[in-house]
Amino acid sequence: MLCTSFDALKPLLFNLPSVQQHLQSIVDGHATLSERLTQLTTENGAPNEIASISRRLAKVAALTEVIHARDKALEAIAELQDMLKTEEDSELRELAASDLAQEQTQLQELEQELLQALVPEDTADEASAVVELRAGTGGREAALFAHDLKLMYQGLAQQQRWSFKVLDEQATDDGGLREASLSISGSGVFGMLKFESGVHRVQRIPTTETAGRIHTSTATVAVLPEPTDVEVEVLDKDIHVETYRAGGAGGQHVNTTDSAVRLTHLPTGTVVACQTERSQHKLEHIVSTRVAIDQCVLFNRVHHLVQNKAAAMKVLKARIFAQVRAKQEEERRAARREQISTTPGERSDRIRTYNMPQDRVTDHRIKASLNNVETLLKGISLPELIVQLQQFDNSQRLADLFGDEVHLSSSGSESN
């Protein structure tokens, strides 16, 4: 069984030969770069090469300092422990014990910093994200729960000062959501929200339930990194565009013109539809002649087609980018599965349960629970849960990086 927390990994990782070699390679690389930079500066080397080496040196300089500081802390701890064993003077022993506690605290902080630096970087973490919500099993309650999740992410976006925009949504008559696509923009959005992907389950008593029975319903969340144009190129010739009449909850909100858009990416078969912008009836109220109304509706239809196509294209690019990332991730993990067996079905799609009667939220991936469901659904306490998920993810990334040795070491420690 692999370790699932940074604290559990610490005593294992820093004693592994591969980790020690990795840290030494960082120190050696820093020394080599420093020597090369000094040589180029003395010999008036090429400015481009000097700039390149300076950038590389800056990346490893701070980490090298932390490695050296950890080495010094280990030496100090060893000396103080020897002193406690051999020193007979009680006053000196008391001072040594105090210094030892300080050094051990500093060592923990330094090793925590090193662990963070060792975690393989996910280049998409700093990207904005497209969040897709869909009501799952549970009918009306599932749609209402999907709407609750939308408000949760909207609250989190406001708290984090991110930009929040609804790209597309299909609402129900009673305020629920059949599905929705959200654009959340800002620094580090995907790095925080990527752990929300999966099936969310809610247990509560519906307002229409007269017998007080608890109903269970679900909603699915998909979080996709929003790629830049450099990362994903979608050619016009690869896109099939269709327009159709947007559907709504019924009545006056149904669009009678072809303002909804469906895009199909022919190479991958990916399909995205968008019909949010459908408000030409609003403009009809502010014009007084039939000709003006006809012109207004025509302009509004074209305007909405452009808006919906742009929104659909944003979602389409995010889905294609996610497919590329998923393929790369699967290839990377395939080698690990050949060496380390896992229990079938160990990773359930159901990631979190919101238990309203017990006022408790449980994340099944890390077996962590929080009280006050309402606070979480407002997005207020969601960062607290995300931090725990990030730490769990970091430990798994480190286990993948140094997998064999971590697996063997943890097995050995469990048997002792």
TrEMBL record:
Look up keyword Acyltransferase and say if it applies.
no
Q: What is this protein called?
A: Prokaryotic-type class I peptide chain release factors domain-containing protein
Using the record for this protein, list the coiled-coil segments as residue ranges, or answer none.
70-113
Q: Which organism is it from?
A: Monosiga brevicollis (Choanoflagellate)
* MF terms in GO: translation release factor activity
Q: Spell out the residue ranges making up region: Disordered.
A: 331-350
Q: Which SUPFAM superfamilies match?
A: Release factor (SSF75620)
Q: Which residues cross the membrane?
A: none
What PANTHER family would the database entry show?
A: LD18447P
Q: Name one GO cellular component term.
A: cytoplasm
The cross-references to Pfam families, in alphabetical order and at most eight, read: PCRF, RF-1
Instruction: Check the record and name the Gene3D superfamilies matching this protein.
Output: 3.30.160.20, 3.30.70.1660, 6.10.140.1950
Q: Which InterPro entries match?
A: PCRF, Pep_chain_release_fac_I, Pep_chain_release_fac_I_sf, Prokaryotic/Mito_RF
Q: Which family does it belong to?
A: Belongs to the prokaryotic/mitochondrial release factor family.
* Protein keywords: Coiled coil, Methylation, Protein biosynthesis
Which branch of life, at top level?
A: Eukaryota
